[in-house]
Specification:
Rossmann fold; 12 strands; globular; binds nicotinamide-adenine-dinucleotide
């Protein structure tokens, strides 16, 4: 039975990835510090599975991490543990440097020591982001060969980590891979991110805050498609290489809100009087457009996204509706604390 470590497995993409790995009969070891965006709800159903282990641990804790690896001897690590919210990185970037850069460095050092001292050569799939390429001009798409040009402390921390991963692969011969996915949406996402926040606010009769004029374009992918791509890259990707994971589905924020309101209508949700777009002061350094060229993963690994935007939004909306009782059970104070919503 193949054992795999997923870091950040209690978060949004990590929990969906563990779901896929368990279905594919892997033995999964989830290492997550249970930070604010980790949701115990995301991993509740895995606990009964005999092929699942959870360790509440910071990826910066090398000695405990090493003990876990030596005990389970996994074939590799999928590194998804990260601080992930751009706005938070602008408010306070230190923890982004600590987790996203030092945390990744720590994992690389761990793998280097395992290779040198224990003859264990673990494969690492490091999960990065499309944000490392920065703002992309209209009519252009970033391929893996594009220069890195990050704009926020978040994307800069991810870009730095990627470069360290590449350097460790070249210098120490580590078996590393990098994935750069576009914006994900789907079940289990923490409602401080755009799509779940809008759904949450539509259901709860709140304003729909939109930065600037709502014209920022993002490439959107349903999380299950990303998880399939990550597994494929881990199994079949060429060591030392990077792979973009995109869908080609690009919409600005206002168009996404329209789609969500349409979905609410289909679900016969009576919209409250507060449910309307509220333009708010733009985020500093806000990139206007992201766009990936994902022909490498499609040609070399024969991967393509499967989920259309309408189907993905339907599945996401349905999930939040079905699980709304969970969100209702927590107090307003908790919501503000846990979900980072402004008062
Ligand atoms: N969500 C997206 O749209 C998107 C797009 C591209 C790339 N990514 C990348 O994918 C990865 C997962 O993103 P996500 O959206 O699931 O994020 P998330 O915030 O939902 O989950 C991150 C998880 O990492 C854990 N974590 C944070 N710091 C840690 C530490 N020091 N030690 C151990 N665990 C720690 C958190 O507790 C949380 O469970 C990240 O690396 C992110 O940069 C996300």
């Amino acid at each position: 039975m193949k054992k795999i470590v997923v870091t950040g497995g209690s978060g949004f993409i990590g929990s969906n990835l563990i779901n896929l790995l368990l279905k594919k009969k892997y033995f999964v070891i989830n290492i997550d510090k249970s930070g604010y965006s980790a949701n115990p709800y995301n991993v509740k159903s895995f606990k009964k599975n005999k092929r699942y282990r959870f360790f509440k641990l910071n990826i910066n804790n090398k000695s405990k991490f090493l003990k876990i690896i030596l005990k389970y001897k996994p074939v590799g690590i999928l590194n998804l543990a990260a601080e992930t919210h751009v706005d938070r990185s602008i408010d306070s970037s230190k923890i982004f440097i600590s987790t996203n850069i030092f945390g990744t460095y720590n994992i690389l050092e761990l793998i280097r020591v395992l290779k040198r001292n224990y003859k264990l050569n673990l494969k690492l799939l490091h999960v990065s982001t499309d944000e490392v390429y920065g703002d992309i001009d209209k009519n252009l798409s970033a391929s893996e060969k594009f220069n890195y040009n990050p704009s926020s402390p978040y994307s800069a921390s991810k870009a730095a980590a990627d470069q360290i991963v590449k350097a460790y692969a070249k210098t120490y011969g580590l078996k590393t891979l990098i994935a750069n996915p576009c914006n994900n949406y789907g079940p289990n996402q923490f409602p401080e991110k755009f799509i779940p926040k809008m759904i949450f606010n539509i259901i709860n009769n709140k304003n729909l805050p939109v930065y600037g004029k709502g014209k920022n374009v993002r490439e959107w992918i349903f999380v299950n498609d990303t998880c399939e791509a990550l597994l494929k890259i881990f199994l079949k990707g060429k060591i030392g290489e990077s792979y973009n994971i995109g869908s080609g589905i690009k919409f600005n924020n206002l168009s996404i809100i329209k789609k969500l309101l349409l979905e609410a209508k289909k679900n016969k949700i009576k919209l409250g009087k507060n449910v309307k777009v509220k333009f708010v002061h733009d985020r500093p350094g806000h990139d206007v457009r992201y766009s990936l060229n994902s022909s490498k993963i499609s040609k070399k690994l024969n991967w393509k996204h499967k989920t259309s935007i309408s189907n993905g939004i339907k599945q996401t909306f349905d999930w939040y509706l079905k699980n709304i009782n969970y969100f209702k059970k927590i107090s307003r104070k908790d919501i503000i604390k846990r979900f980072g919503l402004k008062k």
